[in-house]
Amino acid sequence: xxxxxxxxxxxxxxxxxGADGGQPGASQGSGSLECRDGKILIGVAKAExxxxxxxxxxGRRGLEVAVDEINAAGGVKGCPLKVDARxxxxxxxxxxxxxxxxxxxxxxxLVVADDFDSGVAAARVGQNAGVLTLSLAASSTVFGKAxxxxxxxxxxxxxxxxxxxxxxxxxxxxxxxxQVIDTGLAxxxxxxxxxxxxxxxxxxxxxxxxxxxxxGGQADFSSVISAVxxxxxxxxxxxxxxxxxxTFVKQLRAAGVKAPVLGNITLQTRELPQLVGVNxxxxxxxxxxxxxxxxxxDAKTDPGILKFVDSYKRRFGTFPEQANAPGAYQTFMAVNxxxxxxxxxxxxxxxxxxxxxxxxxVAGGTLSRWQDGYAVWDPTMVKLDRGKWSVEATYKAREKAx
Length: 402
Known about the structure:
Layout: E1 40-46, H1 53-72, E2 81-87, H2 92-104, E3 109-112, H3 116-128, E4 132-135, H4 143-147, E5 151-153, H5 158-171, E6 176-181, H6 186-201, E7 205-211, H7 222-231, E8 235-239, H8 244-254, E9 261-263, H9 271-276, E10 284-288, H10 303-316, H11 324-339, H12 347-355, E11 358-362, E12 365-371, E13 374-377, E14 380-385, E15 388-394
Parallel strand pairs: 1-2, 1-3, 3-4, 4-5, 6-7, 6-8, 8-9, 9-10
Antiparallel strand pairs: 10-14, 11-12, 12-13, 14-15
Helix pairs in contact: 1-11, 2-3, 5-6, 11-12
């Protein structure tokens, strides 16, 4: 689908718009961020259908809320942003084709899927075309290295997510973990590596592992749950895609397993208690970049995130479906601060400005720094207990700057 124009160019002669609608001094190449025909065009190559759509639609909507806010404040140096979003159908090959078409149609910034496996092919198209390319909520630490110097992934890293889960397990005295993991995504296997390194290094033990196919929509976890019961662990770690991960938790609780459930952002949705059952959605803990779950319920929610949630609800008629929504919003608001700099006129100068960002406050958090093309955020551990959310721990990023 194509999004409508968000805002109109400021009156002729405004800062950033020349007589021809271009930014004075902007380069004219494919990576230019000049104001063309009264806009800077953002091409979005993300899933609107298929398994990745639950995450990608939320991320695209979070971007659109950020664009609304930026345009209301005058755009980028006086030029409004426009979003052109098209469906990749959760297929990496289609994603690459969509990315090429968007760039051919004038996209000056390319936004790809919020996952390494789903988005890397499209991201390489952007890099090869010399276009500033973003995956606003992807967490893989290898994404940037696999693409190039004009690419940035903005999600909290898999290292920080895995470390935060491990540290909470250690802090809670959970000595044994049974792991349920979809190995079809680097997002989960990278968390697994980080979790085991810290957890086992501090005396914990992974007493069993069951591989599941949440990407394929697995809905029957009876054999997995039998293995969990036999192992009787202190905590069950669930690393799988929603809604399958929610179905697993529902069946786990229905089978009488009361052990805490530990996971990541794939559990961070208001839909989880509806799927699992409010009374059964207890003792669930997950690592996250931003706490938005308690907006309107928990008075400790950050005011900036409350504003974001209100804007999201007004625009889309629903509470943010999933964590990629506020995550994408945070990342693009950080990128916007780089785009606003006077000497940023194209992809290369924008990339240089982004890389220099450190200790940058945004709604609901602080961007510590960029490293090897990915963002480093301090992780938060959220607890869900019978339909009520709260922050139970915050940790400093362990990943060291190079």
